[in-house]
Known about the structure:
55% of the residues lie in helices and 6% in strands. It is mainly alpha-helical.
Amino acid sequence: MIDLHAALRRCQKEADRYRLLAEQSTDLISRHSATPEWTFIDVNPAIEPLLGYKAEEIIGTSGYALFHPQDADNLKTVVVMLYIVMAFIPTLTVIAINWVITSGLKPPAEPFGMNRVNQLK
Length: 121
């Protein structure tokens, strides 16, 4: 029989470990809604030195707000394809994400002003 309390403690310990890794990382780590808006649910503190935004400013905005509008349109198409891939072949998700990163879809050299982000909320 499974000791539910022990299992819960192990899960909490593992969640705490991953949270600490994300919070201390110098790489941008974020979670987004699984919706067409791709809304930021959570983002680590690395966003501030990398893009100039505080996490509180970004949470709730569309993930596409940080891309040039033309790149955002292309990325939306890629995301739809990614959802299809994930639905049929979940193990290819990392490959598909890597393709997005290496396909030339890049954020602008300087982040948009907060006016741009606020327009897309």
